[in-house]
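As the next step, I selected for study a record pairing a protein sequence with its backbone structure tokens, which the following lines show:
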Amino acid sequence: MEKPATADFPLLDAIARRWSPRAFADRPVDAALVRSCLEAARWAPSAMNGQPWVFLVASRQDANLHARAVDALAEGNRRWAAAAPVLIFVCANTAPALGGKPNPYARHDIGIALGLFVVQATALGLGAHPMAGIRPEAVRAGWGLPEHVEPWTAIALGWPGDPASLPDDLRVREEAPRERQPQAAFVFGGRYGEPWKG
């Protein structure tokens, strides 16, 4: 299933095709493809090149690790994300790096890395669904994270599947058209709320 964006301005194909599926095929994802997505994240820009991202990967090929990852998701996400063959937690390393001070930009930087990850996944034909609904303390305990590494979000990764495999309420959301605010709602010029005229 594809849901390309109806863009008002030209987009790269992988950006136009990127969306967040909940239905995943029962098919493993080769480690080389996961590594390719992680490589895209690796080359993200970051404040003072601090590279504060930490990725915790749980593939279904290790059933116990995958089950631990499913358990660390919020209950609502477990309903569908358990079917994804790969679950990845994205963490922010806030350890002092910027002139000896804690990195206040770590969360911003992991967001950019995550964005590149999902665009790369789309270009490879994979579905990647970032989600905020995780249980941070379960991630922290399950992976033995040091205090300066903050679990922040997760990604379900896999081959897109059949929406009919989802519960009815999620299937309706899966099949619904994509919607976005127009640029006029968030792109401003001289003052907040004043549209940019470029």
